[in-house]
TrEMBL record:
<dbReference type="GO" id="GO:0046872">
    <property type="term" value="F:metal ion binding"/>
</dbReference>
<dbReference type="InterPro" id="IPR014312">
    <property type="entry name" value="Succ_DH_anchor"/>
</dbReference>
<dbReference type="GO" id="GO:0016020">
    <property type="term" value="C:membrane"/>
</dbReference>
<dbReference type="Pfam" id="PF01127">
    <property type="entry name" value="Sdh_cyt"/>
</dbReference>
<keyword id="KW-0812">Transmembrane</keyword>
<feature type="transmembrane region" description="Helical">
    <location>
        <begin position="102"/>
        <end position="127"/>
    </location>
</feature>
<keyword id="KW-0813">Transport</keyword>
<comment type="subunit">
    <text>Part of an enzyme complex containing four subunits: a flavoprotein, an iron-sulfur protein, plus two membrane-anchoring proteins, SdhC and SdhD.</text>
</comment>
<dbReference type="InterPro" id="IPR034804">
    <property type="entry name" value="SQR/QFR_C/D"/>
</dbReference>
<dbReference type="InterPro" id="IPR000701">
    <property type="entry name" value="SuccDH_FuR_B_TM-su"/>
</dbReference>
<keyword id="KW-0249">Electron transport</keyword>
<dbReference type="GO" id="GO:0006099">
    <property type="term" value="P:tricarboxylic acid cycle"/>
</dbReference>
<comment type="pathway">
    <text>Carbohydrate metabolism; tricarboxylic acid cycle.</text>
</comment>
<keyword id="KW-1133">Transmembrane helix</keyword>
<comment type="function">
    <text>Membrane-anchoring subunit of succinate dehydrogenase (SDH).</text>
</comment>
<keyword id="KW-0349">Heme</keyword>
<keyword id="KW-0816">Tricarboxylic acid cycle</keyword>
Amino acid sequence: MTDRISDAVIADPKTKYGNAKASTRHFITQRVSGAINIVFVGFLAFIVLRLAGQDRPDMVATIGNAWIGLPLAALLVIVAIHMRNGMRDTLEDYFHGATYRLLMSLNTAFSLLIAVAGLAAILKLVFWG
């Protein structure tokens, strides 16, 4: 038996495809995190231009400033959420069943690892120099 949806099911408008609330939440999360990322691009460009040509102590001092480091940490979390959701869309299109669940677990673990490692590095600079 295949996991494919038949034409009869697609033709029936009363048929439900998955969890409507979770899908709506995913859609809104993806759009809002994308919009926030667009806003943060200016902030990120400012940081990159400010740090261009600087030596390590100046970079540590700049990112260690709470007015720079904390928004940078927020940006990292939002980018990790957006990255996870974007990869989820791709995985949903190409994988099903146990393979999808395994790859989605790996996707979540990778996104979480990136967020935690980045947050630890940035917050260390902000709070402990």
